[in-house]
Write a structure and sequence with these properties.
Radius of gyration: 15 Å
Distance between the termini: 32 Å
Low-confidence stretches: none
Largest sheet: none
InterPro entries: bZIP
Helix content: over 70%
Number of strands: 0
Organism: Streptomyces enissocaesilis
Strand content: under 5%
Number of helices: 3
Mean pLDDT: 93
Protein name: BZIP domain-containing protein
Order of helices and strands: HHH
Shape: elongated
């Protein structure tokens, strides 16, 4: 798992706490499920690939 994925999972968990404090339990559960997915390795980080494709397209 990349550092980006770890950072995003942490941000999702922080957001889940905030959403839960505001009384939205379902929204908090969704954010926590997404954080779990990011930490599980089932999600592929394609940021570098997409960035490379965009750079390649603009050079043409």
């Amino acid at each position: 798992m990349s550092d980006r994925m770890k950072k995003q999972a942490a941000k999702n968990r922080d957001a889940a706490r905030e959403v839960r404090n505001r009384g939205n339990e379902e929204g908090a559960r969704q954010l926590e499920r997404r954080a779990d997915e990011l930490e599980s390795g089932r999600v592929t980080d394609v940021t570098d690939s997409v960035s490379g494709l965009i750079s390649w397209a603009f050079r043409r």
